[in-house]
Amino acid sequence: MSTKHLITHLRHIDIAMPDFEAQHAFYTDMWGLTETHSDSGVSFLAAEGSPEQYVVRLRRDVQKRMDLVSFGAATPTDVDTLTERLTVQGVKLVHEPRPLTTPGGGYGVRFFDGDGRVVEVSADVVTRTHRKIEERESIPVRLSHVVMNSPNPEQTVAWYVKHLDFRLSDTLRIGSKGEFMWFLRCNPLHHSFAIARGPHVALHHASFEMRGVDEFMRGTGRMLRGEVEKVWGPGRHHAGDNTFSYFLDPAGNTVEYTTELELVDEDTWHPSVHDLTNPEIIDQWGTANQMNEFVAGRSFNDVDPGLFIAPPL
């Protein structure tokens, strides 16, 4: 029998960077997001197919950093229940549950995870009017998942399982080099969050769901024609069964177009360990460029200077 979980879904990823204008132009003109709200040096970007007020928040700052990752809860009571649990478990809060002043309002709490990232959990955020993405329309439907680098990934995975009740879907390993990525879910999607082994704490990548394979390929082609640096793809993963094309945004963050992420049966799913020495595990289609040190290095990203420091917004 399924058990109720306090976190329901992924909401948005908030990032900061010095060259705000270049980043804003990329996400709106190239990547396909829509600005719904803005202020001086801050932009809230929605995916046309998503009811979330925004899926990416850009903020101008002298330093590049990840401000926070946000997840949803069903009710304000669930936010309070989670906060009580975190407090008892010794998790450091950024702020107590309170009304939010970001687009859509709502009620939320912020806290630091074990690596020092800021996590927000909120409820009662007003949904935005969204629409069905049409055939051949190569813009994101929603934010699919985010992946974080950690130099202590086993501890980080255990933190999210213990404190936020994420469930392990699958693990990747590279032969004798051992395990290096853990896929975590908070609903029947194979993963909304994942942790990768990296040399330092940083954003690994943010992934955006497309309408289907044709729209995924059209979006991939738009990036290639626009000479956006490709990291890896196009291909199709084995774990999660989703397509992938990875690119670098102007600030050097890796972003992904994907589609057809697997849905799992929460009551019967059993995690597996997939070995990337098998080429079909890396890419079922065999169409992507080779997974190598170049690909891995791009996704290590820069050291995040914002650990255990609350963002100003």
TrEMBL record:
Coiled-coil annotated spans: none
InterPro entries: Glyas_Bleomycin-R_OHBP_Dase (IPR029068), Glyas_Fos-R_dOase_dom (IPR004360), GlyoxalaseI/FosfomycinResist (IPR050383), VOC_core (IPR037523)
PROSITE patterns: VOC
A Pfam match: Glyoxalase
Domain VOC: 9-124, 142-260
Name of the protein in its database record: VOC family protein
Upper classification of the organism: Bacteria, Bacillati, Actinomycetota, Actinomycetes, Kitasatosporales
